[in-house]
Amino acid sequence: MSDNVISYIDMCQREGTSLQAGMNFGLGGNHSVILMSLRANAPYRDRLEDGGTTLIYEGHDQPKGAHCPNPKVVDQADRYPSGSLMQNGKFFGAAQQFKTGRREPERVRVYEKIRTGIWSYNGVFHLVDSWQEKDDFRTVFKFKLVAVEGDEDFAVPPLRNVQRRRVIPSSVKLAVWKRDGGKCTICGAKDELHFDHDLPWSKGGTSITEENVQLLCARHNLEKRDRIV
Ligand SMILES: [Zn+2]
């Protein structure tokens, strides 16, 4: 289930690792994890396109160090000086292999920082493309990921002809969080919260605005889903 609020500790526990880096390829050998942020002060230019069904994710800079005092002014890299692949290189290779039919799409769980202390699980995406482009004065990596309905079981191969899913925009999530006071609008519970769209897009829901999204706890969200299904 996606669009649920999750704490950083729960994210790390679920992924079985301390999520220090924004890009984490091949966790457990069957999926990857990326952390995104659309906040104005975010370090990278991630963006949602195609009505919120597509994420264009920016690659990450070289680590800051003696040979690289200001990573923002040098080209992003795909390999370490030793020749081994950096995260950019791993994601890039997987996307190119998918594009040329040599592998299934890499499944990527996406977590989004809404504001300090509040993260949202944005669900599973398929990594479908990658390229390099000129930023103002340097070269950066870009990755294209599409949000898919379901496909959460990593023990089985990725779903084919999978339905696209729409992510609730960050600005809407933040506004709803504030309006509903960070608790379930039915019972006031403050844990296991979910951003609930009044009618799922796949069932004909209209555009996602603050007015048709509400915070629900896991129990009330499930009850509502059962009614719709
Ligand atoms: Zn509730």
Helices and strands, with pairings:
Elements: E1 4-6, H1 8-15, E2 23-27, E3 31-36, E4 47-49, E5 54-58, H2 87-99, E6 106-115, E7 118-134, E8 139-147, H3 170-179, E9 193-197, E10 213-217, H4 218-228
Parallel strand pairs: 3-6
Antiparallel strand pairs: 1-7, 2-3, 4-5, 5-8, 6-7, 7-8, 9-10
Bound molecules: zinc ion (ZN).
Describe the structure.
The chain folds into two domains: 4-167, SRA-YDG (PUA domain-like, Roll); 168-229, no CATH class. The protein is an alpha+beta fold and 229 residues long. It has four helices and ten strands. A hairpin with a 4-residue loop joins β4 (47-49) and β5 (54-58). The protein is globular, with a radius of gyration of 18 Å. The protein has helices at residues 8-15, 87-99, 170-179, 218-228; strands at residues 4-6, 23-27, 31-36, 47-49, 54-58, 106-115, 118-134, 139-147, 193-197, 213-217. Bound molecules: zinc ion (ZN). The site of zinc ion has 8 residues, from β10 and α4. Zinc ion is lined by residues 184, 186-187, 189, 216-217, 219-220.
CATH superfamily of the largest domain: SRA-YDG
Number of strands: 10
CATH topology of the largest domain: PUA domain-like
SS element count, helices:
4
Distance between the termini: 15 Å
Number of domains: 2
Overview features:
single chain, 229 residues, 2 domains, 8-stranded mixed β-sheet, 10 strands, 30% strand, binds zinc ion
